[in-house]
Design brief:
The protein is of the alpha+beta class. The chain folds into two domains: 102 residues, Phosphorylase Kinase, domain 1, CATH 3.30.200.20; 165 residues, Aminoglycoside 3'-phosphotransferase, Chain: A, domain 2, CATH 3.90.1200.10. The protein is 46% helix and 17% strand. It is built from eleven helices and ten strands. The strands form three sheets. A five-stranded antiparallel sheet has the order 1-2-3-5-4, covered by helices on one side. It has a three-stranded antiparallel sheet with strand order 6-8-9, covered by helices on one side. Strand 1 and strand 2 form a beta hairpin. Helix 7 runs antiparallel to helix 10 and helix 10 packs across helix 11. The longest helix is centred in the C-terminal third of the chain and has 16 residues. The chain starts with a helix and ends with a helix. This is Streptomycin 6-kinase.
Length: 278
């Protein structure tokens, strides 16, 4: 059921030659996990360049089997999902093994970035509050400052002008603030809808830092400056976070986001927001 050629083509840009060592053993690896965890496999999700994801049935219910050549990354994700589990805002971890994890399936699992009507600021604030109430910041594999450096390096390679972003970042990090376990990569493609829990986060890149940081993507998904400002102000009020710090973090990350979006209008609005033109 696995299209090994397609999987190789998808993973090779990320993992290079390691892909060709890992993919041939994938069918046997999946078969072993199916036997060990008593799974019935469903369809493969054809997305992402870092893992193979399969739907399945498990003794615990509908599930997602995720495997990757990067066993460290899978192990980190598994541990951080367990840290966030008490929030009720992440999928449960059913089973885990080196380079593989079996996660609770989220239903209906619609990507928030694809919804015709986005969650309200109040809904998103409740989601963030729950998420940040769980987990120990000391367990984070990185600090927010380190993760920002990774994002800056990547955006610089894509041509972003980060002069203002770096200055604002330094000013923000110089002021002591609350520290929580952050999801770290909470773009709206990593937020799903769940029938009973509302919003659920997947694929954390967890770090310890300012709770405002996890709010920036919701703000910057607004397609124009007026909508971004509305989301900023209403989300800050609903989540009881400092609107000035939220604004500053949005300005730090807006030029990074501008390098990812394909819509020229949204890209221009992000760049303008980053320059404080509102």
């Amino acid at each position: 059921m696995l299209d090994l050629d397609a999987i190789t083509a998808r993973l090779e840009p990320r993992f290079g030659k390691a892909t060709h060592r890992w993919v041939p053993g994938l069918p046997d690896r999946v078969a072993a996990l199916v036997s060990e965890w008593d799974l019935r496999l469903g369809a493969e999700f054809k997305s992402g360049n870092s893992s193979v994801v399969l739907s399945c049935k498990s003794p615990a219910g509908d599930a997602i089997l995720k495997l990757s050549p990067d066993a460290y990354a899978v192990g980190e994700e598994t541990e951080m999902l367990r840290q966030f589990a008490a929030s009720g805002r992440v999928p449960a971890v059913f089973e885990a093994a080196r380079g593989a994890v079996l996660l609770e399936a989220v239903h209906p699992g619609a990507l928030v970035e694809k919804l015709p009507v986005p969650p309200s600021p109040a809904e998103y604030a409740a989601f963030l509050t729950d998420l940040h109430s769980a987990g120990d910041p000391a367990s984070a594999p990185r600090k927010l400052a380190d993760w920002i450096d990774v994002l800056f390096n990547s955006a610089t390679k894509r041509g972003a002008d980060l002069t203002t972003s770096r200055k604002l970042r330094d000013e923000l990090l110089a002021v002591p603030t609350d520290t929580v376990l952050l999801h770290g990569d909470l773009h709206l493609g990593n937020v799903l809808t769940d029938d009973t829990r509302g919003l659920v986060a997947i694929d954390p890149m967890a770090c310890a830092g300012d709770p405002c940081f996890d709010a920036v993507d919701y703000v910057l998904e607004g397609l124009d400056r007026a909508e971004m400002v509305r989301r900023r102000d209403e989300l800050a009020a609903a989540a009881d976070i400092d609107v000035q710090r939220l604004d500053a973090w949005c300005r730090v990350t807006a030029p990074i986001g501008a390098t990812h979006v394909s819509n020229p209008g949204h890209r221009a609005e992000l760049a303008a927001f980053g320059r404080g033109e509102y």
